[in-house]
Amino acid sequence: MRVFLGPKDILKRSATELRFKLDSEAAKHLTKVLRIAPGDSLTAVLPDVVITGEILAISRPEFSLRIQHVHPPVPDAPHITLIQCLPKQDKMGEILRASTEVGASAFVPALSQRCVSRPQDMGGKLERWRSIVKSAAAQSQRDALPHLHPLATLSELPDFVQNADLKLVCWEE
Q1: In whole angstroms, what is the distance from residue 70 CA to residue 87 CA?
Q2: What is the distance between the alpha carbons of residues 9 and 145, in angstroms, rounded to a whole number?
Q3: Which SS3 state, helix, strand or coil, does residue 91 take?
Q4: 8 A C-beta contact, residue 132 and residue 90
Q5: What is the pLDDT of residues 58-72, one digit of tens each?
Q6: Is the bond preceding 146 in cis, omega lying within 30 degrees of 0?
Q7: From start to end of the chain, where are the E strands?
Q8: What pTM, to 2 d.p., does this model score?
């Protein structure tokens, strides 16, 4: 099992132990759905390091992990940025999930003239998409979370592609 932690999630970190807290939804998922218990193995992915260890104690939402192995995150190679115009309905979630699982490093949701989808609450959508990306990254045992950029227009896209070594445009015909 794998969890992604930010600096605010870490309560204590020493050479032998890592204590961290999770938000209530993630803590519930680990304890109720995955039924993680003391003695089980867990991998904690921090921005600068990946720590594997054994769960020592759980007092939801806090967890203690006995550190067994530490290594730097393995970078994504090659670095792939997917620029995706908004599809109809809620197909973007499935696109993000599948692309994360196959190795995409970043996503740019784009709004074009022909997009049927015109979301009113982009903040809510971005949070849901971040959750989907995080879940897919944990499922595929990635050492880094793909970056999800804010919604961009087609005129803003050159900023994302100017340094790319290879640019591919998918077209159905």
Answers
A1: 40
A2: 16
A3: coil
A4: no
A5: 988 889 999 999 999
A6: no
A7: 2-4, 10-13, 17-21, 41-45, 50-59, 62-71, 81-85, 106-111, 147-148, 152-153
A8: 0.80
